[in-house]
Structure formats: C-alpha cells, structure tokens
Amino acid sequence: MKLEKLFSPVKIGKKRIKNRIVMAPMGANFEDVDGSVSESLIDYFEARARGGVGLIISPFTMVNKEQRINTLGIFSDRFVPGMSRLCEIVQSSGAKFLMQIAHPGGKAMRELTGERPVAPSSIYSPIYPELPKELSKDEIENLIKEFIEAAKRAKEAGFDGVEVHGAHTYLIGQFISPHTNKREDEYGGDFERRMRFPSEIVRGIKEVCGEDFIVGFKFSAHEHLDKGVDDSLAREIARWMEKEGVHYIHVAATSSTIPGFLDCDFPSVPSIYSPPGPLVKLAENVKKAVDIPVIATGGITDPEYAERIIREGKADLVAIGRALIADPEWTIKAKNEGNIRYCIKCNTCHQRLFNKKRLKCTVNPFVGEERRFEIRKTTNPKKVVVVGAGPAGMEAALIASQKGHKVIIYEEKDKLGGKMVYASIPQFKPEIGKLLNYYEKSIEKSDIEVKFKKKINRINDLSPESPDAVIIATGADCFVPDIPGREREKVLTVLELFENKEQDIGKDILIVGAGLIGCETSWYLASQGKSVKIVDILSRDEILQDEHPTNRSMLIRSMEKEGVKIMGRREIKSIEEEGAVVVRGDETEEFISADTIIFATGMKPNISLKDTFSENLSGIQVYFIGDCVEPRKLYEAIHEGFYAAWKI
C-alpha cells in the first residue's frame, strides 16, 4: 500500500507539518532530578527527530513546582535555556515541536511531592491515591496563570506551540469530568462552568503568545468512570474547545491503567492483547464534531494501518508512541519500505515508569543510551560464534556483526527464532511475528553466517571455527513436576503442543499453571473451540500480578470471554486415564476430566554446555545469555544478547 496520505503535509494553525506522523507525548524519566533537560533526553529526542516524524510533542511538563511529580518542569525561567537547546536540536531535522503543559491534580502522589494532592473537588475516586484537597477560587486562578506563564516560557524557548493536557484525568480533565468535578461555583456545576478552567487557560495563552503559536488540546474522549466522559460529552467538549480557538484536538482515554477495570474497551495504554488502534473510534467520533485537525492515538504500530486511519477520514494525524521507542527510524522505514523493529506492546516501558525507573524498551536496548551505545566499527575484528538462534542469540549476532566482527550462528533447528516461533502462533500476538520477521530480515541482509541443524555438545565441536568469542544462548526447556501419571500419552508440555499444532488433543483440555504462558495458551485453545480449564495454586486474583495492569486485565478478560474456567487454589496431585486429580485449598480432592493435560509450570535452563564451556577457556571469551542462565522474559533475553556482543 502506498502511504500517500500518511506522508502528505498538513496545516495546524498557521504552521505546515511535513507529514501526518506525530511522536506522541510519553514520559521517559530521562530529565534531571529537578525537572530540567538532560543530555540523555536530548539524545533520545534527536534520534526520533532525525527519524523523520513531522511533529513531536514533549512529555508531560509541569507548570507548578509544589505538585511536580517525576516529570519535566517549566514553572521557572531557569528551564528556558535547556528547553531552548532541546528545541534547536529537534527542529533542525525539520520536525515541529510542541511542549505539553500539564498538572497532575488529584493524581499527584504525596510520596513524590511531599504535599497533599489538589483537585477541583475533595472526593474519593479510583483514580486518586488519596483524598485530594479542594482548590479554592484563588488557587484556581493562580493555576490558570501558571499554565499561561508556562506557555510563554515555551515560546521563549522556541517551541512551535503547546499542547494543553486535559487527558488521562489529570487536573484539567478533572475539571471537565462530571465524575471528578462536584463544585457549584463558577468552575463547576453545569457543562459550561466545568469548561471554564481549560477555556481561560487557552484564551490566556492565545492572548500572550499570538495566533502563530500552536495551541492544541488533548482530552479523554472516554472515561471508564461513574458519570465520566462518554461519546456525546466528548463531542461537546471538542466543539467547545474548537470555539475557544485551539488548533487541533488530540483524542485519548482514561481507562484500564486503573487496576480492576477489566471490562474497558478503551485502554489508555493498549497492550499486546489489544486489537489494532482501540482508541481510533474515539478520534473518529470527535472528528465528526469539529473542523480542526484531529490526532488519533493508542497502540498504532503498523504504517499501513496508520495510512488507513487517515485515508478513511477517521483522523487527520496519528500519534505514534511506543513504536518510536522501539524504532526511532520508524518513519523513514515506513516511507522507504524498510525493516521496522516493531513494538510488541508488552508495556515494559510503561511499567518501568510507574516503578519510578528510567524508560527501557524490550526490543531496543539503545533507548536512553543513544550516545553511549553509538555503534562504531571495531579496529580489532574477532570471530564470534553464537550457539542458539533465539531472541538472545539473534540480538547478540546482529550487534557483533554491526561492530565489524565475523559472526557465525549455530542453530539446532531449521529456522531462526527459538521460542519466538511458538510465541507468535496465537492470533492475538501478531507483533511477536513482526519482531521475528525483523530479526530474520536483518540477519539475511547482514554478513552473518547461519548453520542450521547443527547441535553443539562440547567445545571441540567448535574447534574448526577457531573462535575468539563464544556466546551461548541455548534457551530453556519446559519443567514438569514429578507427579504420578506424568508419563501418560495424554500429557504434553506447552512446547510440545506448539511444536505439533496438527496433533489431535481432543475437546476437553486441562492446563496446569496459570502463569503468562499458561494463560495465553488457554485463550488460544479456547478460541479454537476447545473447552479449557486452567488450574493453579494461586487464586484468580493472585495470578499474573507481576504483569502490567492493562496486560493482565485484558488477558484475563479475553480468557473468560472465550469460556476458560480459571480454577485457583488447586494443586495437581496425579494424572489418571480420564483426567487429573487436584487438591483444593481446603485439602479436599477433586477430579477434572480431560482429553489432554498441558503443563505450563515454568521453564528450566538448558545447562548442557555449562560443563564444557567456561568463562575463560584457552583465551576464548565465553558468555552465557538468555534463558540458559535463568528463564525470564523477552526483555532480559534481548538485552543480555546486546550487552554480551557489546563487550566483545
């Protein structure tokens, strides 16, 4: 598909944007402790600006000192020099740059601010960490001035405009929403009075900064909250802000990042289990109400899908977020049909931010370290052998090759990917397949030599290669507990299931283990018409607690929609001819009939080569990476592969 619409220019206010691709505003925790611009933040934005996007919107930038959380700041003139430097670097690549100005309101956390949060009304809500203090009229008027002063500083720094952040139920959104605004004065009550706060901010900015300065407005067009914003109110809000003179509307949602919202169709941070662009219909709804440009956002990772959004008139621009974290050259590659390193929407990046850590990406170890990890060809090329072509091995091979080393991969099977091959089989995980395709194409275009169907059993098997360095990435095998009956023909591991998808497993399936792999497998089989039960020693409320809240919510919701029965607080005792005996939490026994029993009870590292390889063997550098060290997630596999190759 030709991406003619995606790469056509568009006017926002009086400024021309070179294409319809917007780098979405995303926190990164790269700013300095005081909220000022850091070198790593500059490097991060420079890489994405050089990648070809038409418009970049900064992360959440605080207008108020007292309630600042871990974000950039613009509440003082001292921020202007750093912001000015950032602007010059971003704009030198042809991108327009907007500052998103914001205040968290009742969502601020005392542990970060040292202060009680403030909000339009002092009410309890699922979105608030504690009961906020109700703002007085004088405090509201002062906050309006702070927003206006922030925009003025943004203009002084050289930004092309600001985005007024009224989304995700932050302070402006709290004034707009009937759920959070219970005031009865001029800043609350009916719709017009609830809109007064953002209206006065926008009017003040336009008066101070002039018509050449872009003023955009981002808001939640759906709030999964009692008396929150719905489709009708969203259209009314958009029309009102257009009348106030904003130059575009950026359509977002407030929803399933809040634990417990299992039935929300509009997650503000869509997960790997979300359908493509779940928030696009919200943008389409708003676009019908206004005549100014509308930006769609939310898990848009595929260029052709982005093109269709614009071509079908659902939005005028698309905000690309995590996809640009995964590949800063997403835009250039989309235009030139290049090999995109796809975001898999695992939400590791988002979860790290909520854990107060710096942004990291599962598939892109360069993020936040663009300067440190700038690849240069080595002056001392070596011969590197990688044993195992799973994600850890493929990443290691690519980085070593890019550094100028001679790289050979030995792979036991007849294809690349390791367990990524099986992880990409479920229909709800197409991004894993796209990431695997990225690795396959990258290795095919490189100078890497791949030797398939070559099993390495000992160090002497590599003697003909005379390697200078060996990277062991042999992965892990399924672990099955030692219980009576496990040798029966009806018993499979998850890997055995996916290695032979055509085998007859019957209708009634019992899965043992409600970890991530077990839950995904239960959904996959149930969607194929199987009757699936899954047992675990943990209760339903306890499973998957280490996953991102949106990922967990959507996975459990999808399992149960397909009819999967989650049977918690049970431990398997034995496997019989017609099923399995399990022991409940109260120590009573229960028989569960099943045609096939599938174990998803974890993995054990493949340590077969550890006895024959050491970390310093006759001058050969040896590295063990990925699941053969300890079974973990894709993040650890890719990053360990990267770091091992970087050391060589």
Describe this entry's structure for a reader.
It is globular, with a radius of gyration of 27 Å. It contains 20 helices and 30 strands. The chain has an eight-stranded parallel beta barrel, surrounded by six helices. It has a six-stranded mixed beta sheet with strand order 17-16-15-18-30-29, covered by helices on one side. It has three domains: 10-354, TIM Barrel (Alpha-Beta Barrel); 383-478 and 605-647, Rossmann fold (3-Layer(aba) Sandwich), CATH 3.40.50; 491-601, FAD/NAD(P)-binding domain (3-Layer(bba) Sandwich). The model has no long low-confidence stretch (mean pLDDT 95). Helix 1 runs parallel beside helix 2. By secondary structure, the chain is of the alpha/beta class. The longest helix has 21 residues, at 137-157.
Offer a concise description of the structure.
The strands form seven sheets. The chain has an eight-stranded parallel beta barrel with strand order 3-4-7-10-11-12-13-14, surrounded by six helices. Strands 17-16-15-18-30-29 form a six-stranded mixed beta sheet, with helices on one face. A five-stranded parallel beta sheet has the order 20-27-21-22-23. It is an alpha/beta fold. The protein has 20 helices and 30 strands.
How far is it from the N-terminal to the C-terminal residue, by CA?
Answer: 41 Å
Q: Helix coverage percent of residues?
A: 25-40%
Q: How many structural domains are formed by the residues?
A: 3
Structural class: alpha/beta
